[in-house]
Each structure stands twice: as structure tokens, then as C-alpha cells.
Specification:
- The chain is about 40% helix and about 25% strand.
- It is built from 11 helices and 14 strands.
- The strands form 3 sheets. It has a 5-stranded mixed β-barrel with strand order 1-2-3-5-4.
- About 20% of the residues are buried.
- The mean pLDDT is about 85.
């Protein structure tokens, strides 16, 4: 071996960089998206893999606008980009310029099929879910005792509910053996009634890392548990089939601890505050009533009653006087109208004419009474006249008729 022609690490890495970036300025690859990690700077970091290999990938935020979908672990995607060498770590990756969804990955397809099958059995029905106790005395955590998730749960419970007893039921949260052991811990907790509520979960990870919490044996154990279970798997964007079977899903293990740890000191403070507010409100009402009732002494009651009654009596008197005056006017008007009608009626009466000395004259001919005579020409000699003055009745016989004026 010729050791005289040595290269520094930087020189070797530079040769690799030139070769890779020069030979592969633009490539199109298809693979399953995994370990998707959006950064706070806006860039997307993830892994593309198939059944035999994987490659790290990055998509800068100025290219994200061209995405027509929300990337998720397990998706089968097609990406176009260029190879880039990261000299400080001696790794290479693909810088993605464009990315489109090629179809669901094998993992997501498997999970969706399992989800549909278990849902059809009723394992996710709302009717199966039990309420989470508000003030549990004992909380059991099924997780890794060395994981950050369990430490977060302990810290929150210690701060928010010191009287709550915490039991750790150790179990691996990753790998092929994780799901059976977690399911066994759930069965043991139910058999011995170890807790009032169970928290089953772990911290964040890739879709593959969270697969044990979607295994059928674990999902069935969660669904059949008599102890209420909170599923707390990964971060808020992560999900597992245990979330659907559990009585409650928490976005993170810390959130699960907050759900079961009603802050008792805070509750006591709130109760005291409410009691003080209630006492102050009652005191204020009593003082207000005392101030309002102070002017109402026994000797002043009649005067105050009269002061309230007098305006109403005055209004009543005014209304009564107005009513009487109106009735008097109506009565006088009707009397005037009645007098006029009587005068008109009397003037038109025949009796009034007879009282002035006139008489009503009719004739009788052949035993038949005729009408009133208005002209001398209506009678002839020998007719019998009937004369009706105001009082009595006079009969006469026509002897001579004068028709001239």
C-alpha cells in the first residue's frame, strides 16, 4: 500500500462532493416518506426509503409553496432534486426541488386497513368510552421508565397534584416486543385494580417508532380495559390506533398528566375565592337593604304612604270631574235635541191645528164615509157632513153650495 499519496478528510470529502454533485445534478426518486420533521425555520427535513435503503432529504421553505399536499410519514412520494454532500458530517442527502404524492406507503395502507377492520368490530365506538375521573387517587403510567415522557408526567403531577400516587408499569415503547408487553401491563393493571386511570404512551418519533401502539393486540387491550385509559402517543401531529380505542386522547404525555392532575391547591384557592366573593356579595346586599330601609321609620310611614297615594288621588279626582262634566254636557245636548224634536213633532200634529179653532170636515154618502173635504165642489146637496172639532163630533147636511171664492 502506497501511503505516500495520502489525502486529508476534507480533500477526500471534496472529491466525493464533486463526483456526486457533478454526476447527479438532477435526479427523480420515489420512496416512502419517513421521520418527517418540519423545522422552526420553515425547512422540511425527512427521510426517503424503500425496503433496502434510505436517504436523507431536505426541502427549503422557498420551495414549499409548490406542494399540493401535507406530507406525512408513510406516504409514497416522488421527488426531484440534486445530491448534496454535508462535509462536516460526511453524509450526503438530496435537496428536493419538487415533490408530489405517489400514493400511500405500505405502513399507512396497512394502518388504514387495520383501522377499518377494528372500527367495524366496534372497538372505537363512543359508547364504549368511560369518563376520566376528575380527582384520581392513583395514576398508572404504562411506558418506558427511562423515557422523557415518563419524567414529564412525573414533574407535572408533582407540581399540580402532590397527593396523587403514581405507579410505573415498565414496558418498551419501540420494537417488536413492545406491543405485547404494553398489552400485558394493561391486563395486569385491570386484574389487580392498580389505578383509577391509566396513561399509555411515549414521546415523539417516526411512524415506524410509533407502530407498537397501532398493533392489534395492544389496541384490543386498550378497548377492553375496565380502567379508563388516556392514550398519549408522540406529539400533537402524531397518531396511533390506540388513540381511537382509548377513552381519551391526549396530544402529548404532558397533556395527559395535566388532564388527570386537577390542581388541588388551585381548586382550593378557587373555592376560597368564590366563598369570599359570595360573602362580599351578601354583605353588600345586606348593607344596601339597610340603607334603603333606614328612611322608613314608623312615624314616617303614613307621610310616605300619603305622598305616594296623593298624586293618584288627585288624578282620580280630575278624571272623575272630567267625566261628570262630560256627562252633563252630553245630557244638556240631548235635552236640547229632544226639545227641538218635540216642538217639530207638535207643530206637525193635527191636534195643534185643531187647538187653534179649525175642524176636520168629511162627507158621508150612501152610508159610506168619504175623505176630508178640501173643495166645495167635492160635495153636493143632501150629503151628510161629519165635522170633527178638537172636542166632540158634529153632523150636518149640505143644503146649498157656493163654489165661488
Amino acid at each position: 500500500m502506497d501511503l505516500s499519496r495520502k489525502l486529508t478528510i476534507s480533500e477526500l470529502t471534496e472529491l466525493i462532493r464533486r463526483t456526486l454533485e457533478g454526476e447527479f445534478p438532477s435526479v427523480v426518486v420515489e420512496g416512502e416518506l419517513s421521520n418527517f420533521r418540519p423545522s422552526s425555520s420553515g425547512h422540511l427535513y425527512f427521510t426517503l426509503k424503500d425496503s433496502h435503503a434510505s436517504i436523507q432529504a431536505i426541502m427549503f421553505k422557498n420551495r414549499i409553496r409548490s406542494l399540493g399536499f401535507q406530507p406525512k410519514d408513510g406516504m409514497l412520494i416522488k421527488a426531484r432534486g440534486s445530491l448534496s454532500v454535508y462535509a462536516q458530517r460526511g453524509t450526503y442527502s438530496i435537496v428536493v426541488e419538487e415533490m408530489e404524492r405517489s400514493g400511500e406507503g405500505d405502513i399507512l395502507a396497512m394502518l388504514e386497513e387495520r383501522k377499518r377492520r377494528l372500527a367495524a368490530e366496534g372497538l372505537f365506538d363512543q359508547s364504549r368510552k368511560r369518563p376520566i375521573p376528575r380527582f384520581p387517587e392513583t395514576v398508572a403510567v404504562v411506558s418506558s421508565p427511562t423515557g422523557a415522557a415518563f419524567q414529564d408526567i412525573l414533574n407535572i403531577l408533582k407540581r399540580r397534584a402532590r397527593g396523587v400516587r403514581v405507579i410505573i408499569l415498565p414496558a418498551p415503547v419501540q420494537g417488536a416486543e413492545a406491543a405485547p408487553i404494553i398489552a400485558q401491563r394493561i391486563v395486569q393493571a385491570n386484574k389487580w385494580r392498580l389505578a383509577d386511570v391509566l396513561i399509555v404512551g411515549r414521546g415523539g418519533g417516526s411512524l415506524e417508532d410509533l407502530l407498537p401502539f397501532s398493533e392489534e393486540v395492544l389496541v384490543r387491550a386498550v378497548a377492553s380495559s375496565a380502567i379508563p385509559i388516556i392514550s398519549a402517543v408522540g406529539h400533537e401531529i402524531d397518531w396511533a390506533l390506540s388513540d381511537f380505542a382509548a377513552d381519551l386522547r391526549a396530544p402529548t404525555p404532558s397533556a395527559a398528566a395535566e388532564l388527570v392532575s386537577e390542581n388541588r391547591e388551585e381548586t382550593l384557592t378557587n373555592v376560597r375565592s368564590i366563598a369570599q366573593s359570595l360573602f362580599s356579595s351578601i354583605q353588600n346586599r345586606i348593607e344596601r337593604l339597610r340603607l334603603l330601609s333606614r328612611p322608613f321609620k314608623a312615624e314616617d310611614l303614613e307621610y310616605r304612604f300619603q305622598s305616594i297615594l296623593q298624586p293618584n288621588l288627585l288624578r282620580f279626582d280630575q278624571a272623575r270631574d272630567a267625566l261628570l262634566e262630560n256627562m252633563q254636557e252630553k245630557t244638556m245636548e240631548n235635552r236640547r235635541r229632544l226639545t227641538l224634536a218635540k216642538t217639530s213633532l207638535e207643530a206637525a200634529s193635527p191636534l195643534a191645528v185643531l187647538q187653534r179653532g179649525f175642524s176636520l170636515v168629511s162627507f158621508e154618502r150612501d152610508g159610506v164615509s168619504g175623505k176630508a173635504i178640501r173643495s166645495a165642489g167635492e160635495v153636493k146637496s143632501g150629503d151628510r157632513l161629519i165635522i170633527r172639532p178638537l172636542e166632540g163630533l158634529i153632523t150636518a147636511e149640505v143644503q146649498k153650495i157656493h163654489t165661488n171664492e
